[in-house]
Recover the amino acids of this structure.
């Protein structure tokens, strides 16, 4: 009798078998996708290291592993709860240290630690965009201090407005995996930093023309980094479905991966063709960023487009990269790795075009486009204002730039006292 009572009680309190299976599937999706997104840190490191000159390669590598580590700790100590806890249609969550649910038991739809890990993996992506743009002429200390502010405050608050179910979520703003919330956030922070920091010494002549080409030290390494990022994006976009416990969810993940790959491929060919038409030769660095531009563009809405639509979205992203690079040079904005065109410009494009394929309940295409524009402008203004304030505070206190002699000699020697390629000439 007691055994029968225990069985009845167990049947009442224990999750049903389908719920357990869904919990396991959803949690595994986030854990595996999170690991894939973490691998993107290696992609950014290799891409940026390949696109800087040899005398700065060790420094940019150090920045990449350090910023990833800073992001992991700040998101634990401050960022996660600020982004998700108690936003409730407002502007900001709760200030405090995150802790997992007790034993991470299947009381919800997913293990809380897996969710934190997946969301944490996104944070360093925004920071990596900044490191590439400002490479070769910013000191290590102030750069890392900015990364603390970006990952602890700027990124989590911007994310809270949509993903934390803040005011943009209430309006119906669409950004599935972060064309704006991740890539444009990093792009705005990079752009304000580039404007305040200024170009590398000798980059531009007084009339604004490029005075001295500054090619990267290892283009095959940059190509490897791009392939790693391409692979990482499958976790970035696919994992953002946040569920794999039903036939519908798994099918959605598959469609997301197909659209993501198609957009990247179209971005490559769009950049290749545009560079060939404009410059009479295809440019490897532009083509690499074309792939990233296509990936960024599809990220706001990778689920709903048909494959042919994903192809167009990605191709336009690749074209925008090629068009924007010379425009930045005309404006004397020195972006070492081309991150502003690929992440900021293509992030804006992807967020706008998502209105054509994805509308919130009760919104038509035109209204959705208006909501998307409001979101882009609001997040852009917020990130640019806080970033500019932080950059200016650092500039007028500890300073941003090394001395001219240190910059000419390379930051590897002045900042680290070492060289990435000691057996080769690094001038």
């Amino acid at each position: 009798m007691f055994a029968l009572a225990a069985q009845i009680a167990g049947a009442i309190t224990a999750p049903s078998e389908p719920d357990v299976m869904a919990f396991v599937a959803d949690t595994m999706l986030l854990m595996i996708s999170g690991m894939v997104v973490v691998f993107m840190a290696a992609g950014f490191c290799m891409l940026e290291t390949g696109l800087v000159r040899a005398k700065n390669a060790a420094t940019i590598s150090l920045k990449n592993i350090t910023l990833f580590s800073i992001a992991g700790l700040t998101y634990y100590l401050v960022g996660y709860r600020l982004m998700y806890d108690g936003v409730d249609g407002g502007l900001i969550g709760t200030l405090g240290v995150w802790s997992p649910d007790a034993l991470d038991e299947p009381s919800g739809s997913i293990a809380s630690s897996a969710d934190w890990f997946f969301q944490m993996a996104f944070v360093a992506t925004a920071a990596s965009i900044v490191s590439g743009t400002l490479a070769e002429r910013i000191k290590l200390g102030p750069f890392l201090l900015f990364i603390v502010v970006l990952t602890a405050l700027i990124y989590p608050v911007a994310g809270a407005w949509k993903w934390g179910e803040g005011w943009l979520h209430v309006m119906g703003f669409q950004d599935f995996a972060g064309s704006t919330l991740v890539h444009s956030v990093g792009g705005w922070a990079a752009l304000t930093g580039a404007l305040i920091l200024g170009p590398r010494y000798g980059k531009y002549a007084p009339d604004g023309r490029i005075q001295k080409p500054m090619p990267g030290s290892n283009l095959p390494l940059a190509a490897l980094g791009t392939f790693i990022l391409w692979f990482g994006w499958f976790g970035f976009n696919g994992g953002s479905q946040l569920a794999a416990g039903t036939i519908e969810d798994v099918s959605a993940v598959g469609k997301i991966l197909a659209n993501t790959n198609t957009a990247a491929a179209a971005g490559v060919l769009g950049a290749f063709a545009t560079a060939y038409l404009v410059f009479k030769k295809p440019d490897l660095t532009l083509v690499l960023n074309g792939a990233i531009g296509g990936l960024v563009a599809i990220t706001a809405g990778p689920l709903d487009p048909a494959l042919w639509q994903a192809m167009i979205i990605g191709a336009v992203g690749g074209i925008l990269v090629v068009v924007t690079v010379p425009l930045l040079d005309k404006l004397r904005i020195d972006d070492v790795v081309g991150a502003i065109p690929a992440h900021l410009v293509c992030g804006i494009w992807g967020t706008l075009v998502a209105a054509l394929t994805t509308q919130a309940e009760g919104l038509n295409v035109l209204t959705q486009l208006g909501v998307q524009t409001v979101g882009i402008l609001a997040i852009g203004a917020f990130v640019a204002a806080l970033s500019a304030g932080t950059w200016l505070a650092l500039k007028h206190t500890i300073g941003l730039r090394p001395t001219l002699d240190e910059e000419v000699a390379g930051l590897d020697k002045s900042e680290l006292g070492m060289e990435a390629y000691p057996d080769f000439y690094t001038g």
Remarks:
- Confidence is low (pLDDT under 50) at residues 1-18.
- The chain has one domain: 20-95+108-416.
- Residues 17-51 form the longest helix (35 residues).
